[in-house]
Every structure is written in structure tokens, then in C-alpha cells.
Write a structure and sequence with these properties.
The chain is of the alpha/beta class. It contains four helices and eight strands. The chain starts with 11 loop residues before the first strand and ends with a helix. This is VOC domain-containing protein.
């Protein structure tokens, strides 16, 4: 898993356990996450986050046996469909991109808007929606609204 010379390694990594590495790989590819083969193997799939502002962040999807190697001895891997331990937020360029990302997530087997918070972020000029991935991890997509959109939101 050593990177090749021409690949600039990410500077921040998010590691998640997944039930099916193949299914989750397909899911994240459909959301425009870019595969990083130099950081992947049979038990881990690595991706750069989509959208240029996020491209220095790496998502590491791990089979349960691999993920267990990284946790404290004796601790359990959280079951994200039963408990939320974190929410991951992607900053994107427009309201249309937020909505499009959720459409892609749903089409790939995820769940659109697993929770709704009325007018969430509106007072700050932010448009945010959420989706759940195949394993129950919660993601948000968010964007800053321009002045016209703030009035319409």
C-alpha cells in the first residue's frame, strides 16, 4: 500500500468499517469519490473525497477484520445503523450539487434525508441535506447560499 512517487498523499484520513467492501466501493464511486489504488488492497478501499476543496481528504473503507486491527484491544466496532458516532459533511459548490449528491446516493442504495431539521442552517445562509450510506453512516452535503437563494430557501 505504498504510494507511487507521482501520487501526492492525502493529509487527512477518515476510516470507516463496512460490511461489503465491494458494495461500498461501488456506492462511493457513484458519488464521485476517486479511487486511490496505491492505498487499497483486498481489505481496504481508499478514495479521495469529491470536489476540489475536499480532495486532500482520504476515505478509507475497511472490511471488519481490517478495521478491528486499528481499534483499541477489547473494544467493539460501532454499528452505525444502531448508533450514530459521527456525521461526515461534504462542502459542495451549489444547492443543485447538494440535491444531486443525494439523488446519486439514493440511486446507489443509500437513504436520502434519514433525518430532517427544519430550516437547518438557513439563518447562517447554508443549505444542508443528509444521506445514509449502505452501512448506516450519516453524511451531509452542504453549501453556502447566495443572497437570492437565502430569500428563496
Amino acid at each position: 500500500m505504498a504510494p507511487t512517487k507521482d501520487v501526492k498523499p492525502p493529509s487527512f484520513f477518515v476510516s470507516l468499517p463496512v460490511e461489503s467492501l465491494n458494495s461500498s466501493t461501488d456506492f462511493y464511486k457513484s458519488l464521485n469519490f476517486t479511487p486511490l489504488p496505491d492505498f487499497s488492497d483486498d481489505n481496504t478501499a481508499a478514495f479521495r473525497f469529491p470536489y476540489s476543496a475536499n480532495s486532500n481528504i482520504c476515505l478509507m473503507l475497511h472490511a471488519p477484520s481490517r478495521f478491528q486491527e486499528f481499534v483499541r484491544k477489547g473494544s467493539e466496532i460501532a454499528q452505525p445503523k444502531k448508533a450514530t458516532g459521527a456525521i461526515f459533511t461534504l462542502g459542495v459548490g451549489s444547492r443543485e450539487t447538494v440535491d444531486g449528491l443525494l439523488d446519486k446516493a439514493q440511486k446507489a442504495g443509500g437513504k436520502k434525508d434519514p433525518f430532517k431539521m427544519k430550516e437547518y442552517g438557513k439563518s447562517l445562509g447554508i443549505y444542508t441535506r443528509s444521506f445514509e450510506d449502505l452501512d448506516g453512516h450519516i453524511w451531509e452535503a452542504t453549501t453556502m447560499l447566495d443572497e437570492k437563494e437565502k430569500v428563496e430557501a
